[in-house]
Amino acid sequence: MKKVVIIGGGIAGLSAGIFAQKNGFESIILEKNSNLGGQCTGWNRQGYHIDGCIHWLVGTKEKTPINELWTTVGALDGVEIFHPESFFYFEYDNFTVDIPRDVDLLRASWLELSPEDKDEIENLYNCIKKLQFFEMPTEKPTDLMNFMEKIKLIISMKDIGTIMKKYGKMNLKEYAKKFKHTALREVLGSFLPEGYSASFVLFTLAAFTKGQASIPYGGSKALALRMQERYLSLGGSIEASCEAVELTIDNNKVKQVICNNEKIFKGDYFIAACDSYEFYERLLKGKYPDTFFQKRYQNPKDYPLSSQILIALGYEGKLDEFPFSLSFPINSFEIHKKPINRLTINQYNHEPSFAPDGHTLIICNISQRYSDYEAWNVLYKDTKAYNQEKTKIGQSVLRAMETRFSQMEGKLKVLDVVTPKTYERYCNAYQGAFMSFIPTVRGKMMEHTGRVKGLKNIFLSGQWLQPPGGLPVAVVTGKDTIMRICKQEKKLFIK
Ligand SMILES: Cc1cc2nc3c(=O)[nH]c(=O)nc-3n(C[C@H](O)[C@H](O)[C@H](O)COP(=O)(O)OP(=O)(O)OC[C@H]3O[C@@H](n4cnc5c(N)ncnc54)[C@H](O)[C@@H]3O)c2cc1C
């Protein structure tokens, strides 16, 4: 039986492991942390469970290809789904803009707010309706498709092509300016971190309004644990707290992985289901540069990355009348000399087990970019100053919350503050990135096969292979990598 060694036990590594086992390989997952799941995780603090990942999971709609894949890997098997009624509520001046689940309601409420934007609202509505038919392809990566399969894929993307042509090259801010009402401009402009192309918002809204982007109950860590159970039940093995630090390469083939605990793992195939920079620069020591990634690393303007500060708060009370997600303006405070004028929070009333009885977990996310990462990088060298900055941010958010919600005064506490450096430390994430390259107007939305020129038996897998990354890309690419290995082995792939 051929052996597959998988470096990284995130969602991509787990998916690769599950399909390796299903396809008759012996496999082992090496994970640097004591827990598997990678960025799809959660942790406990002061009686609360902080969910560190899923705000929306593409694949929550039953009988769709991506849902079937999540079910196959055990992630959604028999799990109930929480469908928030709104994507978020957005407060601006005296207006509250809702992005409801029902797209007809969205159209009606936006028309009521701004009749003068009728044309743009109708246009947005029509795009969303068209894109609702789009399903993320999961069957086969394009490099494994034959001619007819490629033609079929192109035809199925016909409607998307027209929308992509128009909005793929339009900056989100530019798109927002098409609307006359300032609240609509603001909501669209700040819907996603700066830099995204308008098309990405349309895809997100289409997925959300058709029930394809909701949240599995139990949260992120539980989802990863279910995949881990599925992997173990298929006979896979796991070596946790085991960081790969070196690869032994001979005659264009990887022979073994050497880990920081001095353990050595030999195999026939190797999958780097870890960060791409970690793979090319640390494990391959820069000896197998790939132009796809080089181009992106060297041009952060066209290929920006997103990271964030996560502030977890415990609230002594229930938030029954509160939406899941809310964005509101605040009296500005500064982080690394940049003003923060607005907060977006998610509250976990729907997950009573995430908080002590009668309490609620609240999570606030503040988007961070490369210049912010650089500032964190400098600060991180001084542990005291770094911790002081985290405390300052936590307190600023707490005060802003108390100012906006007087009922919360004296009832909030900061549970944890996570920075881009945390993602770097925990997952070896390049610049603390929590997704892959952002689809921008100038960047090319290309996929990577994960193959390494000059090496026959090692593949990259995970969120870095397809922009913009995220959990669906991780689960799909994990499977795709095993399909490529099966092809190399002349084996029929088993789903
Ligand atoms: C706060 C936050 C919110 C998010 N929200 C969403 C969301 O709502 N929806 C969505 O779709 N996505 C979301 N994401 C993104 C999503 O979590 C990631 O895209 C996905 O988990 C990436 O999976 P992966 O397996 O490709 O990579 P990772 O999760 O990074 O897994 C890589 C694994 O490899 C391990 N590793 C690294 N180097 C080594 C080494 N040398 N040796 C051994 N192990 C190593 C790491 O520890 C890690 O476990 C969010 C991410 C964050 C951080």
Q: Looking at this structure, what is the CATH superfamily of the largest domain? A: FAD/NAD(P)-binding domain
| Count of separate DSSP helical elements | 16
- Main sheet: which strands, in order across? 8-7-16-17-18-15-19
What is the CATH first-level class name of the largest domain? Alpha Beta
Helix percentage: 25-40%
Indicate the CATH topology of the largest domain.
FAD/NAD(P)-binding domain
**Residue share in β-strands:** 15-25%
**What is the number of strand segments?**
21
N/C terminus separation: 19 Å
Query: Average pLDDT value?
Result: 95
The radius of gyration computed from the alpha-carbon positions, rounded to a whole number of angstroms, is 23 Å
CATH architecture verdict of the largest domain: 3-Layer(bba) Sandwich
What is the molecular shape?
globular
Our count of domains comes out at 3
Key descriptive features of the protein:
binds flavin-adenine dinucleotide, 7-stranded mixed β-sheet, 21 strands, 495 residues, FAD/NAD(P)-binding domain, 3 domains, 6-stranded mixed β-sheet, single chain
Can you characterise this structure?
The protein has 16 helices and 21 strands. The mean pLDDT is 95. The two termini are 19 Å apart. The protein has a seven-stranded mixed beta sheet, sandwiched between helices. A six-stranded mixed beta sheet has the order 10-2-1-14-21-20, with helices on one face. It has helices spanning 11-22, 65-72, 103-113, 118-131, 147-156, 158-167, 172-176, 182-189, 198-209, 219-233, 276-283, 291-298, 370-380, 383-404, 420-427, 471-488, and strands at 3-7, 26-30, 42-45, 48-51, 57-58, 81-82, 86-92, 95-100, 213-216, 237-239, 244-250, 253-259, 264-266, 269-272, 307-315, 325-335, 338-347, 360-368, 412-418, 451-452, 455-460. It has three domains: 3-42 and 58-78 and 217-301 and 444-488, FAD/NAD(P)-binding domain, CATH 3.50.50; 92-210, no CATH class; 307-432. Strand 3 (42-45) and strand 4 (48-51) form a beta hairpin. The radius of gyration is 23 Å and the shape is globular. Helices cover 36% and strands 24% of the residues. It is an alpha+beta fold and 495 residues long. Bound molecules: flavin-adenine dinucleotide (FAD).
